[in-house]
Amino acid sequence: MMKEVLLNNPRLNVLVSVLIRLIILVVGLFGNGLVVLAVWKKRTLRTTTNLLLLNLAISDLTTQVFCTLMFIPEFTTLGHRPWSDIFCILFVSTNVPLTTTFVSILTLTVLAVERYHAVVKPMRSEIRLREDTVKYACLAVWLAGIILALPLYIFGRYDEESGRCLHGWKDGVFGYQSYRIFLAVIIVLLPFLIISFCYGQILHDLYFKNKVGPQNIALQQETREKRKLFKISMTVTGVFALFLFPYAIFNGLRDDTGNLWSRVARLVFFSQSGFNPLIYSFQSTNFRQAFKEIFVCRAC
């Protein structure tokens, strides 16, 4: 019933989409802005894990802003202007949100590997990230995300007839469909295999592995802290995957990205970037305390 109403009333369809998008934007900017502010103001939060979560928050903020710009063609046409292709490629297409999605997936992969080294291989400190080296890992993640998305920018163009941003490369050995398959392997399958292996090993080590020797209070406290970080990392990754796969099915494996279900899947996926701050609030005492301090400071 609702589907028929939306299909028969394009204006209502656009208004509902914009309203939902604005709500997601406000929630996402507010929540991820809090994460950035908390890590910036509170030095004790600047651990390796939290700095990777900060990188994820910055990626989410970028996603939120550029996803909102994607609705500009719903209200006006770019027309045949010298800057139409550039404006389309950078601002009103999915190019930037997809780039930041690649960054988010790679960040979650680095986070899983870092937690694996911290929990399963704690004695091999030489392969672990530190507070002074994690920034290079974040920079590498952004560079990798941009490089993987380069074909979207190189072959993107504005189609005046349809009023949509399209990718103007022909299919073939190096065509768009081949690029999609490449991304499915490099940016979805491979990272989630790595993540699954890392968290599987961590789960076994923290909950099922028999500990040799007496467990003193300090060691028990350390184990509890590791379990908390594991739960946060797993929840963030699980929510991301839950929202990603419907989008990948409806948009990554099909050409008809303008139909209702594709648009719903895209909207739902890009809304996940507003959930992470809620996860931190519920599962991390340190983040929850930092958020409270920010509000108390603003109220003074």
Automatic annotation (TrEMBL):
TM regions (residue ranges):
12-40, 52-72, 84-113, 134-154, 181-208, 229-250
UniProt cross-references to SMART domains, sorted A to Z: 7TM_GPCR_Srsx (SM01381)
Coarse class of the primary localization is membrane
Listed GO MF terms:
neuropeptide Y receptor activity
Keyword set for this entry? G-protein coupled receptor, Membrane, Receptor, Transducer, Transmembrane, Transmembrane helix
Q: How does it sit in the membrane?
A: Multi-pass membrane protein
What the entry lists under PANTHER family is as follows: LEUCOKININ RECEPTOR, LEUCOKININ RECEPTOR-RELATED
> Is Transcription one of the keywords UniProt gives this record?
no
The UniProt entry's sequence similarity note says:
Belongs to the G-protein coupled receptor 1 family.
**What Pfam families does the database record attribute to this sequence?**
7tm_1
The Gene Ontology CC terms held by the record are: plasma membrane
User: Where in the numbering of this chain does the G-protein coupled receptors family 1 profile domain appear?
Assistant: 31-280
Q: Which Gene3D superfamilies match?
A: Rhodopsin 7-helix transmembrane proteins
- Cellular location of this protein? Membrane
Gene transcribed to yield this protein? LOC116305796
Provide the protein name.
QRFP-like peptide receptor
InterPro entries in the cross-refs: GPCR_Rhodpsn (IPR000276), GPCR_Rhodpsn_7TM (IPR017452), NPY_rcpt (IPR000611)
